[in-house]
Amino acid sequence: MEKFSSKQRVLKSLSLGEPDRVPLDIGSTNNTTMHAEIEKKLCEYLGFRYEGSEIKSWNQQVVIPDERILKYFGADARSIYISEMKPLEEQSDGTLIDQWGLGHKLDSCGAYYTMYFHPLAKASSIDDLDRYKWPDPYSEARLTGLEERACSLGNEYCLVLEGLRETNFGLASWLRGIPEFYMDLAVNKEFAHALLDRLLDFQIKLTDFIFDKIGEYIDVIKLADDLATQQSLIISPETYREFVKPRQKILYQHIKKKKNCFILFHCCGAMRDIIPDLIEIGVDAINPVQISAAGMVPGNLKEDFGNRISFWGGGIDTQKMLPKGTPDEVKEEVKRNIEAFKPGGGYIFAPVHNITYDVPIENVIAMYETYQKYASY
Q1: Could you give the CA distance from residue 77 to residue 79 in angstroms, rounded to a whole number?
Q2: Which numeric CATH code is attached to 6-89+121-374?
């Protein structure tokens, strides 16, 4: 079979074709990477001198992985990760304030940050949205060092634009607070529509700015909105189609007119019911493919949607199996999932989500070695 470059391998899969092997992603997004503790342990295990971690997704404390790790396992994609417009503001009590005015504090285990302050929680009118200080979508600080990174990677790897966070539903719920925003969707619809419209306007301006500056380097743009729990959608399909889908469609189609790139959509949980909607509005691949959630059985997903959308993830459950299974159990699950997703192409291997700090290194090695054993077409 023809030998593919890493970039060609990923792009072929996103085009629903079979390359020479299933592409591998380690850390091109902040949902396919690893906690800083795992990177440190991997460097030690592989005999690399640990040189510190590059953390962009600071709330998850996950890394842009050491390039030596990526090359060792043969990862095919790389992250082009935008920054926020200004550094985090650390408060006297150790909490952090980000560019949106969201407050974050360490959780009880000290491994991750959780939100505790929502700047629009007390907003009661559209006038309050006008008074809110929106971040600058045109801040040059967002792109510091990215052109240099893209050039240094050359044309070998698939480059994924990361750092836009949750662009629509998720960001609205963070700014407002989850209970308040969900109530808005039910009883304060005018306000909910106004907030979502302002976020859409911001995202269009931001993505235009990014693509005008570094668009020539971007192969894939990762967009996100967590719309599901492990059992069902958070909101009804009808509410999704009233509030979220129309704005996703505007943004996604605007991006595709601006730049001929693939759209990777991240949504955890049981999101099967809206996969046809996502296909309709231009999504090319979904992540993380949470195989433990209701309706997310690999073989069924592949059979029902595999000729219309790619699957990026789903390689192994990261809640229970990867941290708590034995290496042999890890190998068996990876083999089973690759065999379900692989036929016909349209699959990029990654675990369901980030490798958490408590995963045994033996399980990490077992996962990637099993991938390598069964990846070839």
Answers
A1: 7
A2: 3.20.20.210
d(Cα 357, Cα 155) in Å, to the nearest integer?
A: 32
CA distances from 359 to 50, 365, 367 (A): 18, 11, 11
Task: Please give the single-letter amino acid code of residue 375.
Answer: A
Q: Maximum CA pair distance of the chain?
A: 62
* pTM exceeds cut of 0.85: yes
Q: How far apart are CA 7 and CA 78, in angstroms?
A: 10
Domain segments of the chain: what residues? 6-89+121-374
Which tens digit of pLDDT belongs to each residue from 139-173? 999 999 999 999 999 899 999 999 999 999 999 99
- The answer to whether 75 and 9 are in contact (CB under 8 A) is no
Q: Give the N- to C-terminal CA distance of the chain in Å, as an integer.
A: 9
Neighbours of 194 (CB within 10 A): 17
Q: 22-81, pLDDT tens digit by residue?
A: 999 999 999 999 999 999 999 999 999 999 999 999 889 999 999 999 999 999 999 999
For the chain, helix (H) and strand (E) counts, in that order, are 15, 13
Residues 6+ positions from 211 with CB-CB distance below 8 Å? 218, 255, 258, 259
Contact 227, 182 (CB under 8 A): no
